[in-house]
Design a protein that fits this description.
This protein has 5 helices and 5 strands; from the N terminus they run βαββαβαβαα. It has 177 residues and is of the alpha/beta class. It has a 5-stranded parallel sheet, with helices on both faces.
Length: 177
């Protein structure tokens, strides 16, 4: 059981890896499929986990992770607790633009058990953007997949002159406005 570090492995040419961490495996799978169906000019590797740490026995087979997406279900306090516990297994340098929080289920406000301000404070505490979406709706799921792929392109270094850190700062600045 080890801490994930962003630069402990060499990158693979024209390839990027994303790690989706969340308790709802069904939504993770749907989002992963939506991302794979999108047109892109690089190879993508999507890994799913319900929590961190990842098992260390497969560490030598795991590619370098370019982006970690923590998925929080707004209807489940358990989801938030699992994400909060998982954050301890992420190296601090990942929070320089290579982590984002994806809050799902926001279309059903009546069933919320997590206050959105708590998630926003989590994003502020870890200097990471917070995205809100409803993955049950196919159109929103496709738009979210496109947005995550664009973030992944930046985090993997495929956008010249634009780094993950500058993107993270830009996202924070736009949220503050």
């Amino acid at each position: 059981m080890s801490v994930l570090r962003p630069f402990d492995k060499l990158p693979v040419l024209n390839s990027a890896a994303i790690l989706l961490v969340g308790t709802d495996e069904g939504l993770q799978q749907k989002l992963a499929e939506a991302m794979l169906q999108e047109k892109k000019n690089f190879k993508i590797s999507i890994h799913l986990a319900t929590s961190l740490p990842l098992p260390s026995e497969r560490d030598h087979l795991r590619p370098r992770i370019d982006l970690i997406v923590f998925m929080i279900d707004i209807k489940s306090k358990y989801s938030l607790k699992k994400v909060e516990a998982s954050l301890a297994y992420v190296d601090a340098s990942f929070f320089l633009g290579k982590v984002c929080f994806l809050v799902t289920g926001v279309g059903r406000v009546n069933y919320c058990s997590i206050d959105t301000s708590a998630v926003c404070k989590l994003g502020e505490a870890y200097c990471s953007p917070v995205l809100f979406c409803e993955l049950e709706l196919e159109g929103v799921r496709v738009a979210t997949a496109q947005r995550l792929l664009q973030i992944l392109r930046i985090c993997a270094g495929f956008v010249p002159g634009f780094s993950a850190l500058s993107f993270g700062l830009l996202m924070r600045k736009s949220a503050d406005d």
